[in-house]
Structures are given as C-alpha cells and as structure tokens.
User: Which sequence fits this backbone?
C-alpha cells in the first residue's frame, strides 16, 4: 500500500486543533517528582516505575475500565472497594463510536464508516480519525471505541454500516489509517470487535465456528493489517464465541493477536462480554469494560490464592494498559477541565462533506446524471428521508447516522444536518430551477408529483444498526413501491439510496440512475446536491458486493451457516463457506452480482492500457496506464486483484492494491500498483495460511481495472 503523503495530510489537519482549557500548571509541577511522569523515559520505563510503586490492589485498578480511569474513586456497586490510585495518573474517558463521538452534542456527524470504506482513500480515513479524535478530546474523552472492522460475511449483519466492507485488505488499511489519525491526538483508538463477530442476532450467545485458515485469512487478517500498520492502543474482544470459547477468554487472544500478530497494546472486553475471571486473564484479556464484575479485587485475590492466575499475568495486564496510556500521551495531555461546547469546526465539516462525496457510489447512470436543468425546470424531490420534516417519524435525520437501538436516538445527533431537500433547493436555484417536495407516503401522490416535473429524485432507505440484523435486503418504508411508481410516472428518475448495506433493486431496469449515499452524515444535503448536479464527480466504489437477491449470498438457505442452530443455548454458526466471503463467493460460484465489489461509475470515463507486471528484487512491480477519456475531470480508483496458483485452493481473486487517481479530460498517467516486499510480507498479499503463512510456487494472475469484475490481465511466475 502507498504511504500517506504526510505534507498533504498535515495541510488538511492544520485547522483541526481545538482550543481547550489547559491543565493546571500547579498539578504538573507536583507530578514532576514521580518517575512515571518523567517524559525523558520511555513508556516502558515509566509504566514499570509506576507499577513498582503500586500496591497489589492499585495494580488491579488497571484491569477494569472505571477504576483504571477514575483514579481517585474508591467505591463501586456491590461493595467493591479499591485504594486510590498512585498520584498523577490521568482521568480517562471512553467514548463509543466508529462514526463520530457518539451521544454527544456539539460534534460533527460524519458519514457512517461504510462510506469511508467506499472512498478507498487512506489519507481521508486518517483525516477523519484525526478530526474525530480532536472532537473527542475537546469533549473530555480520550479513548475512542473505534474503528470497527468485520469481514462482511452476510449483508444482513446489523452493524455493516459501522464497518469497512468485505475485503480484508481494504478494511485493514483503512482501519490502520483511521487508527493513526485518531492517535495523532492524545486519544487512543480501539480496534473492535475481535473476532468473527459477524452478526447481531444472538451475538452474545452464538459461536462462530470456522477453520484456522478461514479465521486467519478472512477474519484475523483485517485486524493483523490494522495492528501492523496502525499500532492501536487497544483491541476490543467480541461477544461471540469462536469455536465454542468466548472471544474474551479465547486462547487466540494470546496465541494469535498478541503472539503471531504481535499486538502489544491492551485487550479490553466489550460491554458485558466477560464470562470468567481466571480463563479471561490467563488467555489474554487485560481490561474489563465498564464496572468491576469479573476482575474485582475479591475475585482476583481468590483466583491468585487458588493458583488459577499468576502475579505475572496481573502485572502484564496492568503494564499493557499503563504503557498504552503513556504511549498515547494520556498521562502527559490531561483532558480539558471544561469540555468545549461546540467541538465541530468548519474543517471537520469539510471532512464530513468530502467523505460523503467521495464515499457515494454511482451505481448506474444511463446519462440522466449529472442534472443540468434549464431555468424554469422543476425537480421533484420525493421521499421522507430527503426532508428535515419527519413523515411518520422518518426524516433525513433518520439516515444521517445509524439508529443505535431501534426506538432510541441516532448514534450521532446531527444537529447541523442539511437535508437533501435543502441542498438540492439551494443548488437548483443557481440554475433557476424550482424544486417540489413530496414525502412519498402516498405513492399515487408521489407519482403525480413526479409526472409533472422535468426530473424526479426519489430517496429510498434502509435503517439498520447494532442489536439486530436485517431479515431481508429490501428497502424499508414502502420504498420499492415508491420507486417503481415514481419511475413509471417519469422516465427521468434518479434513485438516491440511503442504506447501511447492500439492497435488492427489483426496479433497477426501470430507472436510469442510482446513487448509493449510505448514511451520509450532517453534510448530506450539499454533498448529494453537488453529486447530482456534477459539481462533484462521483468516485466512490462499492466496499461490498450488492447481490441480485438475498438468495445469492454465501449463507443463504442454510440455517447452519446463518443464523446458526442453537445447541444448549448457544447458536452454533457454521462458517462452512470458508474463504468464500464477499466477492470471493460470487467469483467462486460464478454468480453474477447486481453490482460487484469495487464497482462505481463517474461522469467521465477511464481507459486502462499497458498493464505491466514484473517480479523484481522481492517486489511485484505492477503499473498500468490510465487515461481520462471523457470530458470532465474525474477520480478513478484503480484496483489490482491477484489470482493465486490453483494448488493453494484460494478463491479466484483477491484485492492486492488500489490507488485513487485524479485526471483531467484527456490526461494519462502511469499508475503504480507495485506490491512491495514489505507489503507482500506484512499484508500477506500473495500468501495463504497453512499452519503458517506460505507463498506457493506457480503462476499468478493479475487483473487491473475499475472494479473486481473487469480489467486487463497479466501473469507472472514465482
Ligand atoms: C458494542 C461496542 C461498544 C460498547 C460500548 C457495545 O454494545 O458492541 O461496540 O463499543 O457497546 O458502547
């Protein structure tokens, strides 16, 4: 993968700083006497000095979120008592979420993570992480429970919008970039949820049962890449079991995550995902999230006395937590005494808007887009989610961010939301066009509104989020009927999708244009308007396959695979599709998707030529000539896929490199997609797992193009 251009990123970051009340200099002076506050020492030395000065129960505090993070509080529910912490340890506050600083007023409502994935833009993922972390810090929070990553095993999974799609490489490198962005502030990132946490249905009472090769190549690999390239302070273990053992007491924590992958931060649990004291600590859990339940002083003392845990294991867990806090700057940059009222800034809002623009995917366009209305033309905007005003409780705000739990507020408050209706009205006015709005609740009325307009833009949605999976891939809110009726009334109909995952489109042949915008955040109005009118040229690419129907998905028709079959209260979920997840499945089975992984159109066109693939000095040099053959400046995400020799038994192809390239009309550039020696080794680009990562001898294929489905081909031998 390409290294991020630091100068460009720093330029974007310059305005991100938030003014906060500085920590009291007196407090800093008092602390200078303690060796763990000596910034000339390494984090390791400081952590060791702190633990050497701690009593056993002061050490225990680090093993549970609340006692670790509120150093002076000594009493908790159920009579749990600790001594106060040693002096000069920081107050630490955790904040959920991958999308933005959740449940907090005065922050930017960034688009959902799946939109970041669709940008295929590492520097943007970094900048978004940095902006979010700046807001978190300003709001008095210094650990983010983000980024979220999973492997997109089924598009029904409720948290799909919180994750980065179905490809391990794309997910891993974007999570790494987001992590580095977050940790460019005195804020820690937390990769979550480790591992094979692929459904919400019975997530606390299900076992993800998969072979080691499948786990390593599909489910561990995104974490491995994000750890290797992002160096997160913490990783959160998941609710589910992995092969019948709860993730937070699974030997994989020590053996794979900390051992083979080399993660040296601390493992925290999810909220209520701990089920034991000794097995959890022994197998690598370092910190229980929230209040003390399993890692109370009484339980740790008893386990120690019984010889079920060792002092060394306690010390190691405490050390990992303290060292991460030190490395992340949490000891040296105290949280502001008074949180800022409004942490959102124009620069952060620009990041939200850029992500919404670059993350929207133009799925289909028969030439209707971009809109180019004449003065006096009427644009009919249709659908409840286009408007600020709710219809039956649904408005643009319902798809600005994720619904957290149905019936509860969105994860992000979207106080500064600009609705699509507002964005389109403002933009249309510049061309002298008018806009009518119909909320779509009466399909016949919506069709009538569409019929009398020059063009109809119909908004259709699926709301999904934590705690529940989808039960189908259909539009909600009568969307299919609405789209069909509007399209029948006006052949010049654009469908704007606001979904968190793939969706079926039974009406696709009857509409000329479809734009997927996901949950586009507070700047959705200006972003959608800019895309529809061509002020911004679409460049997003699908980070997950859109199947023609749910029946085509890897787990369809097999309750053993999804949602699993309960045995003694635990749903046993067989990952028998193995490596065939996402596009790997559709390719293996020869199933044509509706829209392939990596697909996304532009208002210009690109030609690929002169593909060259040469293994040399440990690298595999790949280059291709890319030409903008259309009439607008546009950005293409050039993608390289590799096919491994058949002896490996791998699915037909995998993403190995990508690059966003902006070209003026007629301009050509040679795009470098080289697989470097370091990437080949660290990201396992051409390897398979068979007890260890291995590289097969034989013939490899390379495909380079604008989606997983098309491109120029070449081969080389290793
Ligand atoms: C979620 C985590 C989240 C935690 C704390 C849990 O329900 O699974 O992703 O970080 O709550 O809010």
Assistant:
């Amino acid at each position: 993968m390409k290294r991020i251009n630091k100068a460009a990123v720093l330029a974007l970051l310059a305005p991100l700083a938030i003014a906060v009340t500085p920590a009291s200099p007196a407090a800093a002076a008092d602390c200078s006497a303690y060796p763990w506050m000596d910034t000339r020492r390494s984090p390791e030395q400081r952590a060791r000095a702190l633990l050497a000065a701690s009593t056993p129960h002061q050490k225990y505090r680090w093993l549970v979120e609340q006692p670790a993070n509120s150093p002076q509080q000594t009493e908790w529910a159920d009579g749990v008592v600790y001594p106060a912490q040693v002096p000069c340890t920081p107050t630490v506050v955790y904040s959920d979420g991958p999308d933005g600083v959740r449940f907090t007023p005065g922050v930017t409502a960034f688009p959902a993570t799946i939109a970041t994935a669709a940008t295929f833009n590492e520097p943007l993922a970094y900048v978004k992480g940095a902006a979010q972390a700046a807001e978190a810090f300003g709001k008095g929070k210094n650990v983010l429970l983000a980024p979220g990553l999973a492997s997109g095993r089924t598009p029904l999974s409720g948290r799909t919008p919180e994750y980065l799609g179905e490809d391990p490489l794309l997910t891993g490198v974007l999570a790494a970039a987001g992590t580095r962005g977050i940790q460019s502030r005195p804020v820690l990132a937390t990769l979550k949820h480790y591992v094979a946490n692929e459904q919400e249905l019975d997530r606390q009472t299900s076992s993800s049962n998969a072979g080691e090769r499948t786990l390593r190549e599909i489910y561990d690999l995104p974490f491995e890449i994000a750890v290797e390239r992002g160096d997160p302070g913490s990783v959160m273990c998941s609710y589910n079991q992995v092969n019948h053992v709860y993730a937070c007491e699974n030997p994989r924590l020590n053996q794979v995550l900390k051992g083979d992958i080399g993660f040296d931060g601390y493992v925290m649990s999810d909220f209520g995902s701990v089920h034991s004291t000794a097995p959890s600590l022994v197998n690598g859990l370092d910190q229980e999230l929230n209040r003390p339940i399993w890692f109370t002083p009484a339980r740790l003392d008893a386990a120690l006395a019984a010889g079920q845990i060792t002092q060394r294991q306690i010390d190691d867990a405490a050390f990992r937590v303290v060292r991460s806090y030190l490395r992340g700057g949490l000891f040296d940059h105290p949280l502001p005494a008074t949180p800022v009222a409004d942490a959102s800034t124009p620069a952060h809002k620009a990041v939200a808007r850029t992500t919404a623009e670059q993350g929207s995917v133009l799925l289909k366009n028969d030439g209707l887009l971009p809109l180019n209305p004449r003065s006096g033309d009427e644009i009919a905007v249709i659908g409840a989610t286009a408007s600020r005003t709710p219809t039956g409780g649904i408005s643009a705000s319902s798809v600005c961010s994720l619904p957290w739990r149905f019936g509860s507020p969105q994860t992000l408050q979207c106080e500064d939301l600009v609705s699509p209706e507002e964005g389109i009205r403002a933009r249309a006015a510049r061309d002298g066009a008018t806009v009518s709005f119909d909320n779509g609740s009466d399909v016949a009325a919506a069709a009538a509104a569409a019929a009398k307009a020059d063009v109809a833009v119909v908004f259709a949605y699926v709301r999904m989020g934590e705690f529940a999976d989808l039960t189908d891939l259909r539009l909600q809110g009568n969307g299919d009927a609405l789209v069909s009726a509007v399209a029948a009334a006006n052949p010049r109909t654009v469908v704007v999708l606001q979904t968190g995952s793939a969706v079926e489109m039974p009406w696709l042949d009857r509409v000329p244009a479809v734009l997927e915008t996901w949950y586009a955040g507070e700047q959705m109005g200006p972003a959608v308007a800019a895309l529809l009118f061509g002020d911004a040229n679409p460049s997003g690419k699908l980070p997950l396959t859109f199947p023609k129907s749910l029946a085509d998905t890897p787990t369809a028709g097999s309750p053993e695979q999804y949602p699993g079959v309960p045995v003694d209260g635990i749903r046993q979920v067989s990952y028998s599709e193995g490596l065939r997840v996402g596009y790997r499945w559709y390719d293996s089975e020869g199933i044509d998707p509706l829209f392939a992984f990596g697909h996304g159109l532009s208002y210009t066109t690109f030609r690929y030529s002169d593909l060259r693939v040469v293994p040399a000095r440990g690298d595999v040099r790949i280059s291709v000539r890319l030409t903008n053959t259309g009439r607008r400046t546009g950005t293409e995400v050039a993608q390289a896929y590799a096919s491994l020799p058949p002896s490996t038994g791998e699915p037909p192809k995998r993403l190995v490199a990508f690059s966003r390239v902006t070209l003026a009309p007629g301009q050509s550039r040679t795009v470098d997609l080289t697989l470097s020696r370091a990437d080949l080794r660290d990201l396992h680009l051409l390897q398979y797992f068979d007890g260890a990562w291995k590289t097969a001898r034989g013939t490899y294929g390379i495909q380079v193009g604008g989606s997983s489905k098309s491109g120029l081909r070449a081969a080389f031998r290793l």
Residues 96, 145, 192, 270-271 surround beta-D-glucopyranose (CB under 6 Å). Residues 375 and 653 are 49 Å apart (CA to CA). The two ends are 20 Å apart (CA to CA).
